[in-house]
Write a structure and sequence with these properties.
Helix content is about 10%, strand content about 55%. It is mainly beta.
């Protein structure tokens, strides 16, 4: 014995009415907030921020961000940094990084602070050896992890200033662990 079924037009009308009812009855969704920004800071390659003398090179970055829910941000970032060579008399290494991170922030009146974690691809490109230098590091494209602390200061509805300390764990042949302390400006829309 077959169970009775609605004809296709009736089934389509039922599904459409259920979808409309869920939209009308359900709570209003908050609009997604997006942001773009840029920043830069100082970098060391020792894996620790204990000694300020180790901050010898710099890093710059740009990002696009989406607010997933209050206090949770997802960010796609492009970072350009310069790392020292793994051995003496080697050229510096330019690193291009493409990362995706999630930030969990705790909100106060005009600022937020919290944790950032994520991962991405790191593309290590040693510069050409100069006079008296020898090639010490290979070109590498590796995966890495990133994490750290983030503080966001709200300037107005559209602009905020960010301070962060982020460490990277590159899975390259030398297991580099650069730490970047930086500041950035973001525009929300």
């Amino acid at each position: 014995m077959k169970a009775p079924r609605l004809p296709r037009p009736g089934l389509a009308a039922l599904l459409l009415s259920l979808a409309a009812a869920s939209v009308l009855v359900g709570p209003a969704a908050t609009a997604q907030t997006f942001a773009i920004g840029a920043g830069g800071g100082i970098l060391n390659d020792t894996g620790s921020a204990a000694n300020l003398d180790n901050f010898s090179t710099g890093a710059g970055y740009g990002f696009v961000e989406m607010k997933l829910e209050p206090g949770v941000l997802m960010q796609a970032r492009y970072t350009r940094m310069q790392l020292p060579p793994s051995a003496e008399n080697g050229p510096d290494i330019d690193v291009d990084a493409a990362t995706l991170t999630i930030a969990y922030l705790f909100k106060e009146d005009w600022w937020q602070a919290g944790f950032v974690m994520g991962g991405g691809g790191y593309f290590l490109n040693p510069k050409d050896p100069g006079p008296g230098q020898v090639a010490t590091d290979p070109d590498e494209s590796v995966f890495g992890l990133t994490g750290g602390l983030l503080t966001v200061f709200t300037v107005n509805r559209k602009i905020d200033i960010r301070l962060e300390a982020v460490g990277h764990l590159l899975r390259d042949s030398n297991s580099r662990k650069p730490v970047i302390v930086s500041a950035a400006v973001a525009w929300r829309f």
